[in-house]
Please model this.
Amino acid sequence: MITVSINPIIFSTGHFHLRWYSLIVMTAIAVGVWLTAREAGRKGFKKDDIYDAAIWVVLAGLLGARLFHVIDHWPDVFSANPIRALYIWEGGLAIWGGVFGGLIAAAILARRRGWRLSRLLDAGAPGLVLAQAIGRFACIITGDAMGKPTNGANRLCLH
Model:
């Protein structure tokens, strides 16, 4: 099993903890938005419009990521104490919820602004993929990117 021996907290002062996870996720979002704006500019969108839209897409993505996490862990974590769904300081985001939430916001914005959704999504795809790749480093540091240990008995053998 691979373990990463990096302390997940970069530094603390009082009750404030700056964690690697939040720093990496913020970096991933910033890089993803920057690349999306760059690609959107090449596809005829105004970069300023994309940066304005990104605020809503990112917020909807974060909301969707939290919602999917809560739904996924409802039986074992949240059903006994539903108020814990609001305890964001305990962590818990699901990438597919983030993608889904951001997609809904992008679709609404495209419709309201008269943009072709397919062109907008085409511009956003490289930024989304790069942001996901960067974000995986945060998952590795927190240890939630690892599967269960295996004894290797079910290996696929190609002869």
